[in-house]
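Example for tutorial group B:
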């Protein structure tokens, strides 16, 4: 099995009858991102933009580093056994954790460089997100 050309070396169980055998090199699977992925992506973009206020550069950097995240997903799942019905969810969850670790790495770098605590970095991430993405006001707040 492959994800974007990277080998995914897992053993699938509970395959539907008549499906090709698991682990064939020809089978291509993809990571289906979800709403959690979108929220983490916004945080990733915001972290990037704290150093370079250019949304196109941020989006390009995200796409350029996507293969690193996919490789890490494959590495983390290598040798595991996954129920075929939960493969999509497992891929998505693993991807989200890898992406969240990228965000955490950026936060730690900013805390060190700015000599501040996490709340200050989180404040600036929230500010960037509020500038870039539609945010609904809290119910009952004006």
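The residue assignment follows.
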């Amino acid at each position: 099995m492959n994800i974007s050309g990277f080998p995914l070396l897992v053993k699938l169980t509970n395959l539907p009858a008549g499906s090709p055998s698991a682990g064939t090199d020809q089978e291509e699977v993809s990571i289906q991102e979800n709403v959690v992925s979108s929220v983490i992506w916004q945080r990733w973009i915001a972290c990037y933009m704290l150093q370079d206020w250019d949304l196109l550069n941020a989006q390009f950097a995200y796409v350029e580093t996507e293969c690193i995240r996919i490789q890490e997903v494959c590495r983390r799942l290598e040798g595991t056994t996954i129920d075929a019905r939960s493969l999509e969810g497992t891929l998505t969850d693993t991807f989200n954790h890898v992406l969240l670790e990228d965000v955490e790495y950026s936060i730690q770098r900013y805390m060190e460089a700015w000599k501040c605590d996490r709340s200050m970095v989180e404040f600036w991430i929230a500010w960037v997100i509020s500038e870039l993405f539609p945010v609904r006001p809290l119910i009952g707040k004006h």
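Residues 87-114 form the longest helix (28 residues). Compare this with the pattern of hydrophobic and polar residues in the output above.
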